[in-house]
Amino acid sequence: MLRRKRCQIITITFIMLTIFWNAPISAKQPGERVGSIPIESKKELAIDLVEAEKSKSELVIIQFTGPIREEWKEQTEDWGALLGDYIPDYAFIAKLADKKAKKKIEKLPYVERVVPFQPVTKVAPSLRSSLGKNRNVDVAVIGFDHQVNMQRTVRELVPDEELADMQTIEDTSHITIATLNAQSLEEVILSEDVIAVIPVPENKLHNDRASALTQSSTLLSTGYSGKGQLIGIADTGLDTGDAASMHPDFLGQIKSLYAWGRRGDASDRHGHGTHIAGTLVGTGEASDGIYKGLAPEAQLVFHSIQDRYGALFIDVETFLSQSYADGARIHSDSWGADDYGEYSLTSFLFDRFLWQHPDMTALIAAGNTGYDGFQTVGSPATAKNAIAVGASENDRPDWGDWSDDPDQIWQYSSSGLTADGRLKPDIVAPGTAILSTRSSLAPNKNFDRRFDEFYAYMSGSSMATPVVAAGIAQIRQFLIEHGHDEPSSALQKAMLLTGADDLGEDMRRQGFGRANFLNAIETNFVDEKKGMRTKERRTYTIKVEDTTKPFVITLAWTDYPASLVANRTLVNDLNLQVTTPTGEKRNGNNFFEAPFDDEVDNLNNVEQVWIGKPDAGVYEVIVEGYNIPKGPQAYALATTGAWVHVEQEEPDDVIIGELNKKQKFADNWIRVSKPGKLKASVDWVGEADVDLYVYDLQKNAIASAKRTDHPEEVTVKLQKAGFYKIRVVLDEGDEAHFRLSISYPGK
Predict the structure, then answer these.
(1) What is the C-alpha to C-alpha distance for residues 355 and 352, in angstroms, rounded to an integer?
(2) Following CA atoms 610, 612, 615, 621 in sequence, which dihedral angle do they give, to the nearest 10 degrees?
(3) Which of 145, 242, 352, 506 is deepest in the core (most CB within 10 A)?
């Protein structure tokens, strides 16, 4: 059956930890970050486009000249384009009303090109070998219009006898899963309503000293025990599946228990799910409180998803939405596909749900294929908005070299980067030799070692993931008790990554470091729920007094879900820049080689500035909405420094930019709603001369300022409403940092 094919899971163990030793164990002394992470992709159309001179298709790619402005989208749609998925850089898949619309849109001054979207582009590279061959493949068919039922479209294209197992994902009607032969696959990709056909991932399964290593036990001792928090899990099952005979450590800990893999039977015959649940909320009842979870006052919403064949029945939308409806705002998932950094259907589904529910935090195991080297992280840990968790070693020297150095990454823990160059995993936590609850129905062979009838040891990134999920429960309890209702997932991620202990490992293996939950709650933070749009920016000021520890600031945001046909997944691109007390500029994620402001990250939705030996003094922090095609975009900041004050957002009519020999001019479009007076003024820093021009939509220069003094200013009376372009030009010199102010009618 399709369900069995799609969800088949080889039961490989990956689970977690929970004994508490009170003596904290410190990380290595901080140095510089280690790794090789290109953060700036060249400007290109991030799609496998097959260009042709002629095409009968209504589908095209419209690429704009630069960061997307809302008024550009509005004008393009007014002239006959229906915009669909965003494609980096600065492009949308679109449907055109007619050929005239194409010609009109191509003439718009901010449109770079309009090219056909050919059918073969819709097919994932791994499926292209299936075209023309007589074999069936399990696929997800993605529709152009997110409001259209794709199942109906597929039924019109494919014979009924092939569609016995076709399924539509709940609340995601534009995605349908089906088994297609080569002929049906070719029919589907020719449809104007289809934009992508991708493979369906095959998911498989991917805990007491970890509490000391992550400082979770310190928080627990001060009352942060996960009280009031609900945590969702989708896994193999929970002990007997019956409240009357459940493991003693779970009595009173289960709010909801759903049986999805085997209807009516939520028991755990493997042991994986029970072990993970114990790391999270186990009370230690069976051990007189000795072996308990990291958040013992939290409760669970549990989905049992292993079927009678040992496969996992993965229905992301259902188990996330049910968990959310039951009150869970944290979800721990220790399973995935070994697909080497791919952004899969399940990655997309996590990103989609988390974008729609920005107060939900999902934590996903990175996988256990690190022995294959870099780019081994599996999906859905590749989801942008989830926290991908890798495994570091525990502190159990008697277990051998897997657990003898807590500052090392476990050799099997999957590494980044993702296929599109993003940094994953985000963080690591102890994942080897984790002692936690044992399912009474699971055979001993499924564990690393049996401890007694109630507890057993397991290892893997599966075990590290609930450690971090429990820490998030502690962080979230802290936030709520301090008056931060409905804290965003982005805030919790920013706090977690800012507080992490750098282990001196390659960042492709350790992410931003090993979780330290005490450090996380000691950060200073901003949960900025008022979203930004393209070219908006906000400025913050931070004071650093303690120079004995690294200065860290992290920007995180929950990004819009990527198009499944794009080669890069970032949609809304924010930038972080820090100016030190000595005037040095640092760009987010530009860690490894000075100068630290020569690359700007356009791949990740987490950016961090990390200075191992900071200067004391005041740091200026700028958050810029560089390109927000699907805004507005909220974000969060967390830092080890102290806020001096938070400046108000720059007015909408102030634009900051830089000109140099490679980028000699900058264009800014405005939409004037009525006739009247336009004023523009540009000032700049640098040994240079800057000129200022105003153009109408027909590319006529209607005003200019070309003197050599500061500032350049123009005033012009506009005769009609419409679009106007303000151009700043570097006339002489090597570079200039400019500030452009614009006022106009109806603003």
Answers:
(1) 5
(2) 0
(3) 352
Distance of CA 695 to the CA centre of its chain: 39
Neighbouring residues of 547: CB distance < 8 A, sequence distance ≥ 6: 613, 614, 615, 616
What CA–CA distance (Å, rounded) separates 207 from 276?
A: 8
Identify which has the larger pLDDT, 204 or 558.
558
Q: Which two tokens stand for residue 491?
A: 């805030």
Q: 336 near 380, Cβ under 8 Å?
A: yes
Give the whole-angstrom CA distance, residue 496 versus residue 308. 38
pLDDT one-digit tens code per residue, 237-274: 999 999 889 999 999 999 999 999 999 999 999 999 99
Are β-strands 665-672 and 722-733 bridged in parallel, bridged antiparallel, or unpaired? antiparallel
Contact 94, 60 (CB under 8 A): yes
d(CA 97, CA 250): 59
How many other CB atoms sit within 10 Å of the CB of residue 640? 22
Q: Phi then psi for 153, rounded to 5 degrees?
A: -65, -45
DSSP calls for 187-240: HHHT-TTEEEEEEPP--EE---THHHHTTHHHHHHTT-S-TT-EEEEEES--TT
Which of 668, 634, 655, 648 lies closest to 737 in space, CA to CA?
Answer: 655
Nearest alpha-carbon partner for 615 in 530, 521, 550: 550
In tens, the pLDDT along 508-541 reads 999 999 999 999 999 999 999 989 999 888 999 9
Burial class (CB within 10 angstroms; exposed 0-12, middle 13-18, buried 19+) of 585: middle
CA distances from 64 to 56, 73, 105, 534, 570 (A): 22, 10, 10, 14, 17
Q: Collapsing DSSP states into helix, strand and coil, what is residue 269?
A: coil
Task: Give CA–CA dist 73/97, Å, rounded.
Answer: 15
Q: 544-549, long-range: CB within 8 Å, 24+ apart, which pairs?
A: 544/581, 544/614, 544/615, 544/616, 544/617, 544/618, 544/619, 544/640, 544/641, 544/642, 545/616, 545/642, 547/613, 547/614, 547/615, 547/616, 549/30, 549/640
Ramachandran category for residue 596: left, alpha or beta (phi over 0 → left; psi -120 to 50 → alpha): alpha
Per DSSP, the chain holds a count of helices (H) and strands (E) of 14, 37
Separation CA 167–CA 7 (nearest Å)? 13
Indicate the SS3 state at residue 139. strand
**Residue 611, strand partner residues:** 551
Q: Are 363 and 493 in contact (CB under 8 A)?
A: no
pLDDT band at 320 (very low <50, low <70, confident <90, very high): very high
Are the C-beta atoms of 249 and 454 separated by less than 8 Å? Answer: yes
Q: Which residues of 78-106 are buried (b: 16+ CB within 10 A; e: fewer)?
A: ebbbbbbbbbbbbbbbbbbeeeebbebbe
Q: What is the pLDDT of residues 44-73, one digit of tens each?
A: 899 887 665 566 678 999 999 999 988 899
- The full length of the chain comes to 747
* pLDDT at residue 13, as a whole number: 30
List Cα–Cα distances, 478 to 359, 449, 593, in angstroms.
15, 35, 37
Q: What SS3 string covers 576-615?
A: EEEECCCCCEEECCCCCCCCCCCCCCCCCCEEEEEECCCC
User: What's the pLDDT at 203?
Assistant: 84
Contact between 672 and 718 (Cβ < 8 Å): yes
How many Å separate Cα 709 from the centre of its chain? 46
Rounded to whole angstroms, the Cα distance separating 294 from 469 reads 9
Contacts of 618 (CB under 8 A, 6+ apart): 541, 542, 543, 544, 581, 644
Strand order in the sheet with 330-333: 254-259, 299-304, 230-235, 330-333, 361-365, 387-392, 427-430
Strands, E assignment, 628-675: 633-639, 642-646, 654-660, 665-672
Torsion sign, CA atoms 212, 218, 219, 225? positive
DSSP string, 469-508: HHHHHHHHHHHHHTT--S--HHHHHHHHHHSPBP-SSBHH
Q: Parallel, antiparallel, or unpaired for β 387-392 and 427-430?
A: parallel
Q: What is the residue whose two structure tokens read 């898949």?
A: 93
Q: Which residues pair with 175 in a beta bridge?
A: 142
